[in-house]
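Support request, please re-run this one:
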Amino acid sequence: MNEKTYFNLNTSGLGYVNRVRTITPKRGDPFLCCDIAALCGAADAVEYVRFDCKVTGNEARKLIARCKQAVNEKRKVLIHFRLGDLYVDMFTYSKGERKGETGVSLKARLLYIGFVKIDGEVVWQAENQDTADAAA
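Re-run finished. Output below.
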């Protein structure tokens, strides 16, 4: 039997959820996306790295859909996340100050959410982190 094997590169961290939206491609089924502003650096001088994510994990899809209203209300939605299949996408700004300039976006698949906090309050947490990690 010729079974394929893969090497997975995953990124995990904490980040704020923004721009929850459903994308409807010309071909194929609609899919859920969101941006994650991931926290990095020293706690007293936090920096952010933005990821544009296609939400692919089953539980992650349910959770992000449930968080959409809070995000639209500009509430602080913080998640523990795991991303996979990270890649760089180049694009050209079509409007604004940077119109015509080349931009770069980090894209990934949102696979797993360990917890969700809204305005500092835990509203959902994975039952068993180890089991959830293995399932993702």
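The longest helix spans residues 58-72. The first strand starts at residue 10 and ends at 23.
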